Fold this protein.
Amino acid sequence: MDSYLTIQSPSEGIYTEKRSKFLAFAFPVSTPEEVKEWVETYQKKYYDARHVCYAYMLGAERLQFRANDNGEPSGTAGKPILGQINSNNLTNILILVVRYFGGIKLGTSGLIVAYRTAAAEAIAAAQIVERTVDETLSFHFDYVYMNDVMRIVKEETPEIVQQGYDSDCSMTLRIRRDAMPRLRARLEKVETLQIEE
């Protein structure tokens, strides 16, 4: 697993049912701290709403996730939102759904449909992109081996994150996870080159 799907930029969706309004917002996120900031911002922004429910998924392995019903009956809001994230195979995403109550109760099945549909609308409005899981490698070597190193860099095409030329040369490269073993093996053959662990 060295790639994953996420959204390019924030998007919105809306769903109305029996005068209740469900405003959905999707954000690309990569840390629990970012999630917390968005949730707090939207709870303040929509302070007059009945509920601000959300779900998120983080990491390429999709192991870090949470669903929050924010006062709605258990399993009627966060889980259906998370279900949409899962069915679209997305990660590094937060979806918030703000509910304005319209005076008519929807019942548990009505709530599940409403939150699921609102989340689906936000995803449908987003641009889904594939990102790679990258790893970095830092090393240093004697200047006389610069050509050997640059030949490998040219052939393996990692991104050069940093390079320095002091008494010896140093470099940090970033490359897709599944290409790292080959890049590393080739660099280890260069004389004087030492990889920083």
